[in-house]
Amino acid sequence: MRDPEQQFLASFVLVLGILIGVAVGPVALADPEKPAAIPAAPISKAEAVDAPLTGPEVYNEICVSCHAPPGIGGAPALGDTDAWAARIAQGMDTLIDHALHGYSGSTGIMPRKGGRVDLSDEEVIGAVEYMVEQVAQ
Ligand code: HEC
Prior knowledge:
The N and C termini lie far apart (99 Å). Strands 1-2 form a two-stranded antiparallel sheet. By secondary structure, it is mostly helical. The protein is built from six helices and two strands; from the N terminus they run αααααββα. It is rod-shaped. The protein has a domain at 45-133: Cytochrome c-like domain (Cytochrome Bc1 Complex, Chain D, domain 2, Orthogonal Bundle). The structure holds heme C (HEC).
């Protein structure tokens, strides 16, 4: 028979061992080489380029350089009713045709697709619609 003190010490060490195991175990098991979470795969460049731009995006990226108020080089400024009324009166088809293919009117030169020929027709049309919407109230 072991004496009670020895027995107590044995169970005390056992409990201590379990506690340390529980507390330290997961930390010790974790591989320090592995990052805690695998970062999400970045969007590939091809995908980002393929995604069509919205009208406001095209306007804010390209058209804004001339069409921002007060309008550079004779360009009708965004939201300027006086500058746009007669143009809108020509009809959307003409506005879109001029934006897509470029034209030189009485106030300046509108370059084809605002100079960004890599834009799709739909993207440019979206920007024209956006610009017209800012006037029509
Ligand atoms: C380099 C400057 C410049 C950029 C960039 C530009 N424009 Fe223009 N835009 C003009 C000028 C100048 C006119 C006015 C031409 C005139 O009537 O003599 C014009 C006119 C227009 C008109 C009116 C056409 C009409 O028949 O009256 C539309 C629509 C238009 N631009 C759309 C756009 C769109 C959409 C973009 C962006 C994709 C864009 N523009 C980018 C200079 C620019």
